Structure formats: C-alpha cells, structure tokens
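Reply to thread "Modeling small-molecule complexes from scratch"

Following up on the discussion above, here's a worked example others can learn from. I took a protein sequence and the SMILES for pyridoxal-5'-phosphate and predicted the complex. Inputs first:
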Amino acid sequence: MNVPFLDLKAQHAPIKADILAAWTDILDNAGFVGGKYVTGLESGLTAACGSAHACAVSNGTEALVLAMRALGVGPGDEVIIPGNTFIATAEGVSLCGATPVFVDCLPDTWNLDPAAIGPAVTPRTKGVIGVHLYGQPFDVDGCQAVCDKHGLWLMEDNAQGILATYKGKPTGGLARVSATSFYPGKNLGACGEGGAVMTNDAALDAGVRKLREHGQAAKYYHDVVGTNGRLASVQAAALQVKLPHLPNWTAARRRNASLYLERLQGTPGVRLPAVAPWADPVWHLFVIHVANRDAVLAALQAAGVGAALHYPVPCHLQKAYSHLGYAKGSLPNAEYNASHCLSLPMFPELTEAQISFVCDQVRAVVQGAA
Ligand SMILES: Cc1ncc(COP(=O)(O)O)c(C=O)c1O
C-alpha cells in the first residue's frame, strides 16, 4: 500500500462540476477581479470564523503583511512571534520593514508560550503573533493578558487553524486581527493561492482594504502606498464552493486523528500530540515525536508512508535570519520540536485501512530504529 501525505485529487473529484460551473460563469461574464465571488466568500468567512469583517487577499503571507501594515507596523518596530512556525509568519514582519523577535513554544502543544512574551518586550515592540500551529489553538487568553499588560496588539496566524475552536469559539475572530492562508494544502485550500484578513475592527478592515487596492480611497486617488493584494475571482469561486464542505472535512480530520491516537496509544518510542484543555483542533497536521527522526522518516517513506516534516529548522535558526544572531539552544522547545517532529498523512478522505497501514508501519519502523 502507498499512503500519500495529502490527496487533493480525492477532495476535488466530488466538487469538480460545481467549481467548473462557477469558473464558466466568471469566464462568460469576464468577471475576473472582485465581484460576487469575492464578496460572497468574504461573508461566508465572517459567518464561519465569527469575525465581523473578512477581507480576501492574494495569499496568506500578504494577509500577514497587510494586517500589520494596517496596524502601522514599519521600520524600527519589533513583533514577537514563535520560533516554531512556518517562515511566512516571520516574513510578514520582515516585509513590513520590522524585526521579528522569536520566542519559545510550550513543550507539549508546541504553541507560543505566553510566559516567553514578557521578557522579549522592548520599547520597540508593537505586537505579538500567535500561530494556531498544526490546527490547534494557542493560549489566546494567556497571550492577550501579557499583551494588555504591555499595551501590545495580538494577532492570530490562523493559516493552519480555520474552524478550530478555542473555549468553544472559532479561531480567526479571537484577537485584534487574524491572517489566514488558502494555499491548496490548507484545510480550506484554493486551486492556487489565496488568503484573508479578519477582524472585528471596522477601521482596521477599511485600512486593509485600502492597502489591498493600491492604497486608493477612490479610483485613482491614492492616500497611502498600497499594493495589489487582491484575491483572483476564480480562487474566490473555488473557495466559495469548498467552504460549505469544510465542517464535514473537519469532522473527518477529527475522526482520523482519533483513530491515530487510539491505534498508536502506548507505542514505545512514539510521543503522541497533546490537546490543550481549551482546544478543539482541526488537525491540519498530525504530528508525532520520535527519536532518530530522520531515520524513521526515511524508513516510513521507503515503506510507502508519505510522512513529512513541519518544520525541520525553526525560524530563528534559518540562514535567512542569521543576522539576528540567535544561537542554537536559544529556544530549546522549538529546537526539540524541529528535530523530533514527524507529520503523518492527514486529509479528510484518508480511509481507516490507510490509517491502520500507517500505524503498523510506524510501530515496525520505530521498533527497528530503537
Ligand atoms: C503558519 C502559516 N502562516 C502563514 C502561511 C503563509 O501562507 P501562504 O503560503 O498562503 O502565503 C502559512 C502557509 O503557507 C502557514 O502555514
């Protein structure tokens, strides 16, 4: 048996006709930019994520940049982020001309440690970005309390967390602003690139919308230097077709995670993901921790299991950020995660037989590598 890490063809087969019908409508009406599919997606997102406003943008990295620029982040500013995230969280800060300040994660959920924020605050700090990593909500209240104490804003990087709940409320509408990604492999993925900024603050939403449209308030009158951050209508249409399926796809991910947890429970040498008491994760990734990780990864791949790494090098030790001077050992939990994490196949259409096969291979390989 071969089990892929992700099977997007399986996701698209049952909804292909609906996507093609929407794309035909766009082609027939030459409605390639903006229009009903973009506004329809935006209102669908506000309903799904419980935020008052959603602004669709060209990708998740741009969502981070536009949200921060609308908050006034610029050169000389610092933004605190976890070292344990996909590089885009850091790039968002850098692309605003500001400096990312990396802090450590908790050693169980691998999410931002609220206690790590305070010691990293300086007079230049403007805000904090927490990441709902792997689809599990970070400790929003814990981080918000530290932000309030220091007069900082909190942002959610919700690229991996859409439809997850924190204390019963959906992520994406919990903090001052959130940024999400519709990269194809995300839980809600476009047929190309996409992203969104969500907020309950009408003025902030207006600021993001202006930046998305070349900084213009009215056509050809530009108040600020903006950009073209628009989402293509064909992507909005595909996402609008997919959004109503997301609750079922999320339920399937949760079922798959339960099967993994049940079948790998008690396996010597395998540390299973921990779920925080406030969290109902959406399992964007199912990440276990093992010793001899690289050998286990290679053996699993050779046995037909599409395992992967998220992520092998934490942001603070990436070459791109070497100028910031973080040494190995500066964020021990993030570094432990990077050297022991292993992502097993996870997507809604994964079958029970595929999960059993993956678990059998994990048991055999981990025993062999011990
Ligand atoms: C945590 C996180 N933040 C930001 C991004 C950036 O999104 P995009 O790839 O759409 O630019 C991603 C995904 O790629 C991500 O996983």
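What I'd highlight from this example: Residues 59-61, 85-86, 88-89, 131, 157, 159-160, 181, 183, 193, 195 surround pyridoxal-5'-phosphate (CB under 6 Å). The chain has two domains: 8-244, 246-369. Questions welcome below.
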